[in-house]
Every structure is written in structure tokens, then in C-alpha cells.
Task: inverse folding
């Protein structure tokens, strides 16, 4: 009897502990969101998006150059990561059994696990050293490399979800394989692929480490891809480790912008996937 | 007719060749990373050899490059983070997959994944201004008898190993817990039913499932370990950046990723640069091995039954 009571007690205890661990993980999430919002909101105004940084001591000012810079660098990365990711994803799903497909899958997983700072070091070697200059382009390459595996995996996954009968129908009508894939299979998976790209963009926009010595930084407004460029994340980093409270406030505002982007994209992706699932169930 | 078939064939070849080219390009990029890192660190490898990893002094100005403190800091902080995060991550995985009501599962999954989506730099910022002061107060409040232990020596600075381990633990939880969750989901329901039929309590049934899923769970923890090893910004901002080897949780230390973030852009001499790239190279190799082992564990778990593909994508998504 004693033993049964003890077993029941232990079971209840562990069930409670599991619930507690969920709460323990949610505490930092809530705390981070709380601090980012309360600390960031006071410095977040229209000027933050439209004005240049002011010298220390002068209140106000914004991160217009860094926000534009982030968009440019992320855009450059997307420009080459999206085609590369989608095409290799198509290969991996169309020729799923081949050795190259397993190899590319393995390469994507490997790339996914490479620390972002190491990708920065790599890009420094191939895109900064040879030209003896930090550049927005190098930053774009670094972010693009980080994006590729994310896009490749989503594309592959979603293409495999498209019912085989769709492709077979196209083939039966006399379409070539390329035609069947590009006009029937890919369009069917497109909403999902867009969602995946959106999430990848959101994640990449928050990266700092690969930009530290590729895009570097720039105190001025620059749109020249051959020049160093300021980015939101690197700016937040520099402000955060500076000793000035004014800059700390700006850093919190920058963090709020970053977190908002991530939250917005995650919610959008969730709505999109929920809708897709409903469609699939309805079909 | 024969011309038509020919067209089909060239079309197929073009399609396969075209998409295949991009696939090959992806593989080339991974290979190029390894090669380039090796090439850029050759000076340091030739100059110091293994000595590089056995020397404790890092003084670039004097031309002394010993990388042992960085390896130490990286491993120590990551292992501490795992010690903190593993029970919590497993608790979350068990709660979501075994205990929670169905309507709660999706929101909980969303919230834990949100934890993974917050940028590292935001963790760092929060770490500097919120976590570090709290840790400092904890250190100040540490009773004297504890301070004589090697883990709690040194002045209460706030920044240091303890802050780094805590922030890493928070950041690693979503990765381990989402893979562990998927692994648990792949355990056949019959396992649990059999346990219940034998009169097991809830925990005993869960324990059976955990045992069944053990390889996958180890893989999930390893995946988190790989993440922790390479994490850069948040750690750089709270660990104190001081190259030394000590057990003290209060002492500022340094990690491989952090030294790259701080010193790479200002490396003045060629040898200094190569020494830093060598640290990056070794970090690359270590994370490669840890991730490969982790994936092997997770896959072998999936291979026992059908949902292998689901597990693999779960692992890929979690590490994203």
C-alpha cells in the first residue's frame, strides 16, 4: 500500500514539474518581450525611422541609415538565396532517391548548423579580403548563405506534400517534367514556400554576427553596395555596449523593431499555414 | 514522333541538369567554407601547431597566441547551459506531447518557437541590462561558506560565466524541446497503453516512452549543444570577454565565437588574423561533428518506425 501511494505521489509530482518547466521557459519570454516593449517604446517614434543618428548628448535622432542598410543587405542575400534554395529544393524532391539529393540534403543540414559567426569569417575571406573593403555586398552574401538551407528545406518539404496525382495528371496531358513541375507542382506549393521565405527573411534580418566584419558599419546614409553599410542589428550591438544611456534607449528601440518584425512574420506564417491546412482538410 | 521523344529527353536532361547545378552549388558552398577557413588559418597552423590549443596566454600585442581559454569557455558555458536547459526542455516536451489538453498544444508550441525566433542580439541586450544586474545581486547575496568553493570565487561583477550559461540555456531550450517533442510523438501509442495495462502510473508510462525514445532524446540534447557552441552575440555581451581558465561561475571568461566577434575586424597582423580564423575553423569542425552525431541519433530513432521524414524535418526546422 505504501508503495502504491509513493508511486502515485511521484507521478503527480513529475506531472506538476513538467507543467512548471513550461512556466519556467515562458518567464524569460514574457520578461524579454516586456522589457523590449516598455524600454523601446519611449524612443520609438517617426523620427527613429526617418532621422540619422545624432552625436552623443543630443537627444532624438534615429536609425534611418541602419534600417535602410538592413533592408539592402537582407535584399541582396535574398536575391541569390531564393533561386538557389528553391532550385536545389526542387532537385531534392524530384530526384529524392538519388545520391546527389541525399548529399544536398546533408549539405543543407550541415550549413544550417554552421555558427553564423563562422559564416562571417568565411565571407570575410572570399568577399572582403580580395577587395580590401568591407561592403554591403559581402554582408548580403553572408546572410544569403544562411538563408539557403532554410529555403531549400521548406521548398523540398512542401513539394513533397503536393499530391502526386497532380503531377501525374500534367504528365498524362503530355507536359514535360519541367513543365509539370514549374506549372503545376510548384504553384500548388507556392503559398507555403512564400511563408517559408518570409520566416527565413525574418530570421536573417535579426542576424548580427555574420555582419560584424562583412557589412561592417557606416555612420552615414549609404546605398552603395561596394561600401560598408550600417545595419539595424550591428547598430543595436554597438549602442548596447556603449556607455551612454541615450544610445541604450536607441538600442532598445532597435530591438523593439527587430522583435516586431519577427513576431509579425511568425504570426503571418501561422495564419497562412493554418489556412493551408484548412484547405487541405476541406479538399 | 522520334523527334518528339528526343525533345522530351533533352527537356528532362535540361531540367535535371539545371536544378542539379544549384544543388551542386549548395554542396560546393559547404566545402568552400571548410577549405577557405583552412586556407586562411594556414599561417597560424604552421607556426603554432598543436601548441596553439595548449597555451593559455592570448596576447596579440606581444604576438602570443594560445587558444585554450576559448575552447574552455566555449565548452564550459555550453555544458553548463545544457545542464540547466535539459530538464526544462524535456519537461516541456513531455508536457506538450503527453500531458497538456489538445487545445493547449498549438499555442504552447508557438510560444516555445517564439523563444527560438527572438534574435540573438535582443537576448544580448536584455542580458546586459536585465539579467546581468540580477546575477550580480545573486552573487552579492552568496553566503561566505559558498564563496570558498571554487565555483563561486571572485568579485561579484555580474558579467561572467553564470550570466552566459543562463542566457545560453534560455536560447537552447526551444531547440531541444521541439525535437524531443517530435521524438516522443513518434513513440507508438501501444507502448504507453501496454504500460498502463500493466498498472503503471502516468509517470511510469512516460518513463517507458522516454526510454523507448532515448536515442532521439540524446540527439535532441546534442542539437541544443551544437547551437550553444556557436552562439555568438548574446554570449559576447554577457560573458565578460576575458581569456582565462577557471571553474568560477562568477569570473568573466571568453568563448571562441566571442573572440571572433570582438577581435576579428581589428586584427592588425596577418598572423593574428590567421590565428583567429583557426579558432573559427576549429569551431566549424566541432559544430559539424556535434550536429552530425545529433542528426544520426535523431534519424536512427525515426528509422525504427515509419515517421522518419517527419522527424528529420522536425530536426531541420528546429535547427533553423
Result:
Amino acid at each position: 500500500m505504501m508503495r502504491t501511494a509513493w508511486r502515485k505521489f511521484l507521478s503527480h509530482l513529475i506531472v506538476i514539474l513538467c507543467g512548471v518547466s513550461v512556466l519556467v521557459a515562458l518567464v524569460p519570454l514574457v520578461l524579454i518581450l516586456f522589457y523590449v516593449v516598455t524600454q523601446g517604446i519611449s524612443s520609438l517614434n517617426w523620427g527613429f525611422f526617418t532621422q540619422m543618428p545624432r552625436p552623443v548628448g543630443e537627444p532624438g535622432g534615429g536609425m534611418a541609415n541602419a534600417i535602410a542598410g538592413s533592408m539592402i543587405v537582407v535584399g541582396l542575400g535574398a536575391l541569390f538565396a531564393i533561386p538557389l534554395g528553391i532550385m536545389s529544393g526542387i532537385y531534392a524532391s524530384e530526384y529524392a532517391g538519388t545520391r546527389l539529393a541525399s548529399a544536398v540534403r546533408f549539405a543543407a543540414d550541415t550549413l544550417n548548423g554552421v555558427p553564423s559567426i563562422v559564416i562571417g569569417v568565411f565571407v570575410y575571406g572570399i568577399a572582403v579580403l580580395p577587395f580590401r573593403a568591407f561592403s554591403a555586398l559581402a554582408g548580403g552574401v553572408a546572410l544569403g548563405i544562411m538563408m539557403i538551407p532554410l529555403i531549400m528545406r521548406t521548398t523540398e518539404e512542401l513539394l513533397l506534400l503536393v499530391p502526386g496525382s497532380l503531377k501525374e495528371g500534367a504528365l498524362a496531358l503530355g507536359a514535360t517534367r519541367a513543365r509539370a513541375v514549374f506549372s503545376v507542382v510548384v504553384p500548388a506549393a507556392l503559398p507555403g514556400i512564400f511563408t517559408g521565405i518570409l520566416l527565413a527573411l525574418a530570421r536573417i534580418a535579426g542576424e548580427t554576427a555574420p555582419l560584424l566584419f562583412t557589412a561592417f558599419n557606416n555612420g552615414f546614409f549609404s546605398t552603395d553596395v561596394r561600401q560598408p553599410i550600417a545595419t539595424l542589428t550591428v547598430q543595436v550591438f554597438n549602442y548596447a555596449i556603449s556607455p551612454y544611456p541615450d544610445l541604450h534607449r536607441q538600442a532598445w528601440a532597435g530591438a523593439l523593431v527587430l522583435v516586431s518584425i519577427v513576431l509579425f512574420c511568425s504570426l503571418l506564417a501561422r495564419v497562412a499555414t493554418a489556412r493551408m491546412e484548412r484547405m487541405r482538410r476541406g479538399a | 514522333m522520334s523527334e518528339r521523344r528526343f525533345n522530351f529527353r533533352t527537356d528532362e536532361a535540361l531540367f535535371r541538369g539545371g536544378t542539379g547545378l544549384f544543388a551542386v552549388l549548395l554542396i560546393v558552398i559547404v566545402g568552400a567554407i571548410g577549405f577557405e577557413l583552412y586556407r586562411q588559418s594556414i599561417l597560424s597552423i604552421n607556426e603554432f601547431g598543436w601548441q596553439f590549443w595548449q597555451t593559455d596566454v592570448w596576447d596579440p600585442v606581444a604576438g602570443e597566441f594560445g587558444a585554450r581559454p576559448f575552447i574552455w569557455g566555449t565548452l564550459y558555458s555550453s555544458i553548463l547551459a545544457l545542464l540547466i536547459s535539459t530538464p526544462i526542455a524535456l519537461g516541456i516536451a513531455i508536457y506538450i506531447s503527453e500531458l497538456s489538453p489538445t487545445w493547449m498544444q498549438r499555442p504552447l508550441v508557438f510560444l516555445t518557437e517564439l523563444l527560438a525566433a527572438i534574435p540573438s542580439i535582443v537576448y544580448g541586450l536584455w542580458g546586459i541590462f536585465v539579467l546581468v544586474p540580477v546575477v550580480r545581486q545573486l552573487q552579492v547575496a552568496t553566503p561566505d561558506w559558498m564563496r570558498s568553493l571554487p565555483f563561486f570565487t571572485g568579485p561579484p561583477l555580474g558579467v561572467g560565466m553564470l550570466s552566459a550559461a543562463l542566457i545560453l540555456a534560455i536560447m537552447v531550450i526551444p531547440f531541444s524541446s521541439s525535437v524531443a517533442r517530435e521524438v516522443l510523438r513518434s513513440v507508438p501509442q501501444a507502448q504507453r497503453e501496454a504500460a498502463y495495462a500493466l498498472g503503471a502510473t502516468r509517470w511510469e508510462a512516460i518513463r517507458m516512452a522516454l526510454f523507448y525514445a532515448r536515442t532521439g532524446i540524446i540527439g535532441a540534447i546534442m542539437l541544443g549543444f551544437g547551437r550553444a557552441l556557436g552562439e555568438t552575440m548574446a554570449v559576447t555581451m554577457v560573458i565578460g570577454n576575458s581569456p582565462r581558465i577557471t571553474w568560477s561561475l562568477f569570473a568573466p571568461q571568453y568563448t571562441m565565437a566571442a573572440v571572433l566577434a570582438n577581435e576579428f575586424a581589428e586584427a592588425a597582423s596577418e598572423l593574428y588574423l590567421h590565428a583567429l580564423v583557426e579558432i573559427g575553423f576549429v569551431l566549424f569542425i566541432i559544430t559539424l561533428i556535434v550536429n552530425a552525431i545529433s542528426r544520426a541519433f535523431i534519424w536512427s530513432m525515426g528509422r525504427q518506425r515509419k515517421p522518419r521524414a517527419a522527424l528529420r524535418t522536425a530536426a531541420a526546422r528546429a535547427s533553423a
